[in-house]
Amino acid sequence: MYQNSISLIRGSIFPIFFQIIQGANRSVGVSGTGFFIDNQGHFITANHVITDVPAGAQILYAGNVPIIIQPQLSEIHHVVSDHVRDIYIGRVDQNALPPVTLFNQRTPVGTSICLCGYPLAQISFDPNGALNVSNVRQYWQPTFAIDGAHINAHGRTYDGFITQDTSLRGMSGGPVFDVSGRVHGIDVATWTRNIPQQNGPDMVVNNGVVVGFHSIQDLLQQVSNNQAHITRKNKDSSLLKRLRKWLFKKQE
Fold first, then answer.
1. Would 99 be classed as within a structural domain?
2. What is the pLDDT of residues 37-46, one digit of tens each?
């Protein structure tokens, strides 16, 4: 059912690494998942994937692990974020992946969707000290949208929908997509509720929470504005170079 859509999504997601170096000791982990949203290197993830790493950690990018692994981890740059909506949009300077197709409307209840990301990451160091991330794997978890949701919890506000199943740790920030490969939102949280029972302890219910793209259009517009600024800056730089070249030739 999801074989074709997974083939569309798998080349656009990546694990978000954090690295801590203390003297001769180096520690690397995966805090969550990101995915690209345009051809200029912009990606999106959950804000807590970036902010909940250990103090002093670097946030790094290694490419489309485990399919394509770049030799060196590279820095991730902040573009815009929103703590309350738990959204982070960043940018990488090189080796960006193809963007996904966004679904910007509200997701109908009953839509079959799939969660994905990088849980259970196994990271090791080779005898020569090189980082080995070949066992950082992509996981896929089909479920469906059971209700629309506007949730206020833990100082955050989520506007989107809830899923029957929750994702695994490490999948936060990943794309939530349908059978056509359209991405409906970002996997951000687990919502836990207690249902009182007449006899016995409360029933504990856990559902996944997805932020829909319809609710973050203002942040996506800021990315578009940033993209336009970079384009103008590059054009101005190119024009200046041509002008300098012309003046240099004229002086000859």
1. yes
2. 999 999 999 9
